[in-house]
Specification:
single chain; 303 residues; mainly alpha; 11 helices
Length: 303
Amino acid sequence: MIYAGKLSTGDLLFVTGAMWCPALATFATKKIFSESVRELAWQWGDARYIWLGYLIPILYALPVYVIAWVTGLGAFNWDAVAKIAENFGWQRFPRGVTLALFIVITASVGLIPKLGRALGEEIGWRGFLVPELAKVLPFPMVGIVSGLIWAGYHYPVLLFADYNANAPRWYTLICFTMMVTAGSIVMAWLVLRAGSLWPAAILHASHNLFIQSIFTPLTRDTGPTKYVIDEFGVGTCDYNRDRSGNRVRARARQPPPRRGVIGTGYQLNHISLHIHGRARRPLLLFESQVLSFRRWRHGNNRR
């Protein structure tokens, strides 16, 4: 991808492989430390958190695009609707019907391939890294640290390929890092609260789906557009921070569930969640019954 300078190189096969690298690294780490991949949070969990994962990207992305369309920072791309009608064989349908059908089909069936790629990252980031960080860090730092690592993982294609919306590299780097870090706090909360990695995988897939496959293609560049929308604009990163932060605070006020497990060998522990310096109700985080490192070190000492 970097050599060609395009993410679309290889019909997204390279992208798919890269997105599954965190999962492969997780499987290898589990093998090295003689742990089972069954300890990961494979269970589906409460459906409420699955729906939250699907809906949150709409809540922080749609307002940005609507504002861009209304204010002239961008424009609704009716030419794209005409191309959609041609691709789907809907030339005889009214534009409104074509648009509605496209959104419904893309937002449902289109989630499947997006989830297939997003799952590879989320097994590593939220399925493995977040629970490990939660053993030694308070909740806000769990989201921030995992978010910065997640952002850095994207830097090569952002800086040396076309994953940047053609905006200045320094600008996209700042906006993308802010967006990913803010989103990572929400995703960490969902995983720890639900005891499942699937809400984060759904959120990741939904984010890619609505921004990359629906909202951005339906937006025409009027000049400043690339500085506002997409994953590299100030609007999306700002809404991601504020709207998602409000969602976390609202959910954090709820009493934690009495039971919940994320993998074998972990117990749930109540700690205080601090957002913007104010203590909130307890949030369920993980406390390892026997730390993996200690088990590994103890085994080496015996040798």
